[in-house]
Amino acid sequence: MKQNILITGGAGFIGSNFINYKSKQENCSLVNLDKLTYAADLNNIQIPQEVAYHFVEGDICDQELLEDLFKKYDINTVIHFAAESHVDNSIAGPKIFVDTNVVGTFNLLQTAYNYWMHNPNEFKKGYGQARFIHISTDEVYGTLGKTGLFTEDTPYAPNSPYSASKAASDMLVRSYFHTYGLPVITTNCSNNYGPRQHNEKLIPTIIRKALSDEPIPIYGDGKNIRDWLYVLDHCKGIDQVLSNGKLGETYNIGGKNERENIYIAETICELLDRKQPRPNNLPYKDLITYVKDRPGHDYRYAIDATKIEQELGWQAEENFESGIEKTVDWYLEKYHSGLS
Ligand code: NAD
């Protein structure tokens, strides 16, 4: 069956990497619905001209628009990335997180249900091959101590307005499976990094500040731990879930790459020392500056990815050290081409 895929948030970091990846496959058409918030950049999308691709500027909170798009493009697959995604912004202004992440997800679910339910060919076969893949985060599980891993059975305990809004959206997705049989699957992923990430996030901030010879801010004592996943590995995992994931299930996606924030900063500084020495030849790590910790800062996230590895045969290909070098190279190329 041809996949007519609605990708929401496809001008953001992960969505654009997914579009670039998916555009290499045949038998699918891609509709990218994005509101073009500050986090979006259409230059992120680099696909061959012959690919069936349509960009629509719009809001997932606009239900009429969603209904038109489902009809116009006969959407049978949704990959839902669109979100407000930055924890610090959610602390400063949480409302938009509820609007987009909760209400927007609800609108998408309801539109998919209305369209697929009333399309007799799909519905007679139990929605046919239709799929709704909801992209979520491991932050819904809250924080870990020094030991333990998040599994799909870990109870939800979100600690920031961002993670709470994502947790609420996960619950809505779950309910549409149990109540209406909507063919949904949720993925909960650890921290992504790689090309095309917005400047506000940790790794682009470290690179940008270093290259402009400004203090590199690190929260608290720098000992917080995240489990890093190279964005292309995430895209491949999502594609596996789309092809072979079991309906109604959730899959944790992580790269087994737990690293302290200070290690991230020091590794990037060492790579830059080699690739782009400071004009004064001093080490970049001299720029690292500890700043006041984020309120409610989760200590540690780490994913147990056994389920997706064993059931779907997915495995992260990059370790942190190989992925971060590719990432630094990409940002250096952007820096040399004069783009900020
Ligand atoms: P991002 O902030 O880079 O991109 C989000 C995109 O969504 C932007 O292009 C933005 O314009 C668009 N958008 C925002 N509100 C919208 C609306 N109301 N209607 C339509 N489009 C809208 O985010 P990202 O890092 O690419 O994350 C994508 C998804 O993956 C999010 O759902 C996020 O929760 C999830 N996730 C991200 C990470 C990570 O480390 N970045 C990890 C796990 C899960």
From TrEMBL:
InterPro entries, per database record: dTDP_Gluc_deHydtase, NAD(P)-bd_dom, NAD(P)-bd_dom_sf
Cofactor: NAD(+)
GO molecular function annotations of the record: dTDP-glucose 4,6-dehydratase activity
NAD(P)-binding domain ranges (all copies): 6-327
Keywords: Lyase, NAD
Reactions listed under catalytic activity: dTDP-alpha-D-glucose = dTDP-4-dehydro-6-deoxy-alpha-D-glucose + H2O
EC number: 4.2.1.46
GO terms (BP aspect): nucleotide-sugar metabolic process
Matching Pfam families: GDP_Man_Dehyd
Similarity comment: Belongs to the NAD(P)-dependent epimerase/dehydratase family. dTDP-glucose dehydratase subfamily.
Listed name of the protein: dTDP-glucose 4,6-dehydratase
Naturally occurring in which organism (per UniProt): Aquimarina brevivitae
